[in-house]
Amino acid sequence: MSPASEKESAVREPDEKATPFLTVVKGAPSDEEIAALTVVLASAGAGGEGPDHTVVDRWGRATDLHRQAWGMPTSYIHRG
Q: Which Pfam families match (predicted)?
């Protein structure tokens, strides 16, 4: 597409009816409040990235080194 045809496709004809993105039913919000709400709703509807599907490898975690050793013969020497 050429830049001229992109401009033409972005401009609406006067007889076309544009549906509003947001309609205020009650109250009198300021222009800033409407702009903030529009940004929030547009970003929520955008979807963004999907969930992260990386494989979690828990082999050799540092927390495993801090666990007690159960079931070894020397575990019961100094018990009660």
A: ACC_epsilon (PF13822)
* pLDDT number for residue 34: 92
Report yes or no on whether pTM surpasses 0.85. no
Which of the given ranges, 13-17, 41-45, 55-59, 64-68, has the highest pLDDT on average?
A: 41-45
Chain-centroid distance of CA 30 in Å reads: 27
Distances (CA, A) of 12 to 3, 20, 30, 42, 76: 16, 14, 26, 21, 83
Angle at 64 (CA atoms; ends 62, 66), nearest 5 degrees: 85
